[in-house]
Design a protein that fits this description.
This protein has 409 residues and is of the alpha/beta class. The protein has a domain of 211 residues: Rossmann fold (3-Layer(aba) Sandwich), CATH 3.40.50. Helices cover 34% and strands 23% of the residues. The longest helix has 27 residues. The structure holds S-adenosyl-L-homocysteine, thymidine-5'-diphosphate and zinc ion.
């Protein structure tokens, strides 16, 4: 029996290809005295649209449950990501923002990691950020923020107040938004005819190639490809004019859209479309194969953690990522297998991980008594973390990785 839903991009029929089962909100870290009976769960499952090939969740979580005053994720937690966004700001300043009095809008500006550079350069800007706590952090950096969800009505209000934008930018945000028609209508209303809409998100091609199934959780609603984004643009009066592969967050693509007919698409667009065809990325059989890899990883990871517990080894998690909610809940990883997870984010520390209730502690708790093994949930920051935790390895500690397969390094 196959499950279907209606595509949030084109209205076509979406065929389910993997079911992660009952999952909590990935960023809902619980206080120690929480009423566990009241914890929110939903069915996390993912499917492929037969018409436009957009990969998407089968069920949507109401946005206010995820993005609110207490939303804990802060973008500036990684030095590497800070550099990434500063580099992008510099590039935009010297390419798209060179006209007189340019205006840049960012959707999901979070703590201002990118717009800080725009504020410092004296460029007119606006961050649109519904999560109040992180929006306040941006404002404290001198960033101009509007505390609201971006959608068509917000776009029209911004246009009335500030005029049209040269650049609309969104990092790791567009894939969070199921109501895509409203977003793209808003982008059309707010963007200058000469402007561009630039967004970067985890790339389905990398997720399938690396079996990085933990990119799939409540907040990540869409999994883009050049093909699905091209179709999504076409349906909304826009055109895909450039793509750029990025290495951050385990592999992303930065897409550039322009009003239809305004710019000539780069060769990179045709090339990525060709690679996707060769890899049969938009085919159900490929995605079912991905599902089989997920089950294999679950089996291997549970077997490894169970064996280590039987041998009396200590295992601690590193990075209380949103991604880790998918891994721990799919695999049933509770404090019996992983005694705590360390994380630098103050709003996560002293709390319990969603669904599996593993305590979150500070990195200082990790280094106070090194465990035998550290399960690297923040594998997308492996280089940065392994470099700063060299003493752990020197003390005989080993890292456990689970994508693309389960390994001890
Ligand atoms: N751009 C940052 C933050 C990504 S987290 C980075 O790349 O690190 C996703 C952010 O999108 C959250 O801060 C969330 O509050 C915000 N968000 C969710 N829905 C949104 C919407 N409709 N409009 C604008 N921001 C939104
Ligand atoms: P990230 O992988 O960026 O995103 P997501 O939550 O969407 O999966 O999250 C990284 C987490 O790891 C974040 O909670 C901060 C934490 N972290 C550390 O504890 N130490 C570090 O050195 C880095 C880079 C991140
Ligand atoms: Zn579709």
């Amino acid at each position: 029996m196959s499950n279907t839903s209606q595509c949030r991009v084109c209205g076509g029929s979406v065929d389910e290809f993997f079911d992660f089962g009952r999952q909590p909100l990935s960023d809902a870290f619980l206080p120690l005295d929480a009423d566990f009976e009241k914890e929110f769960f939903f069915r996390l499952a993912v499917g492929l649209c037969q018409e436009c090939t957009m990969v998407q969740l089968m069920e949507e979580v109401p946005r206010d449950r995820m993005f609110h005053e207490e939303y804990p994720y802060v973008s500036s937690g990684s030095a590497y990501m800070r550099e990434h966004f500063e580099g992008l700001a510099k590039r935009l300043l010297s390419t798209e923002l060179t006209a007189e009095d340019p205006f840049v809008v960012e959707l999901g500006c979070n703590d201002g990691v990118m717009l800080k550079a725009m504020a410092e350069a004296g460029v007119r800007h606006l961050g649109v950020e519904p999560s109040g706590g992180v929006a306040d952090l941006a404002a404290a950096k001198g960033v101009r923020v509007r505390k609201s969800f971006f959608e068509e009505s917000a776009a029209r209000e911004i246009e009335a107040e500030d005029g049209r934008a040269d650049v609309i930018y969104a990092a790791n945000t567009l894939c969070h938004i199921p109501y895509m028609q409203s977003i793209l209508a808003g982008v059309r209303a707010l963007l200058k005819p000469t402007g561009v809409f630039v967004f970067e998100d985890p790339y389905l091609g990398d997720i399938v190639e690396r079996s990085s199934f933990d990119q799939i959780y409540d907040e990540h609603f869409f999994f883009f490809t050049a093909r699905s984004v091209q179709r999504m643009a076409e349906l909304n009066g826009l055109e895909l004019v450039d793509v750029e592969r990025l290495t951050v967050h385990g592999g992303e693509v930065r897409y550039t859209l322009a009003p239809a007919g305004r710019r000539t698409p780069s060769d990179a667009v045709a090339e990525l479309l060709r690679t996707e065809r060769e890899n049969k990325l938009a085919e159900l059989a490929t995605l079912q194969g991905f599902g089989a890899s997920v089950l294999k990883i679950r089996e291997d990871l549970v077997a490894l953690l169970t064996r280590l517990r039987e041998e009396g080894r200590t295992v601690v998690g590193y990075g209380a990522t949103a991604k880790s909610a998918t891994v721990t809940n799919l695999c049933g990883i509770t404090p019996e297998l992983v005694s705590f997870v360390c994380d630098t984010t103050p709003a996560k520390q002293g709390r319990l991980t969603p669904g599996t209730h593993i305590p979150v502690r500070t990195p200082e708790d990790f280094s106070a008594t090194y465990p035998d093994y550290a399960l690297l949930f923040a594998w997308n920051h492996a280089e940065e973390i392994m470099a700063k935790e060299q003493a752990f390895r020197e003390a005989g500690g080993r890292w456990i990785l689970y994508v693309p397969d389960v390994r001890i390094v």
